[in-house]
């Protein structure tokens, strides 16, 4: 099942999906869950992972909010959506940089997902337009 297909089924979208925004929503949904899982795994490591846990939890929450706002097609709030996409990209960059400092496989996967999400969010922020 595709989130892009679900967006396209919205009566006000009439099949037209902003592809960059659909990609960002897709990645933000997955990134939220990957970061949450990484934070949980970090809490079980035998070393101080406090900062990594904090950034993973922060990025999970920001990605979740970004995905939720990006899914909404009724009404319009382009400035807030654009700013949230940019914030999500920055949060993902910070989390990825922290995760890349660790040699744990879960951190490597989280960092990769965060980098992909950041790129999609930056691209989507450019595609959000004011309503006509």
From TrEMBL:
Annotated Pfam families: Csp
InterPro entries for the chain: Csp_YhjQ (IPR005560), YHJQ-like (IPR044543)
Official protein name in the record: Four-helix bundle copper-binding protein
Recorded superkingdom: Bacteria
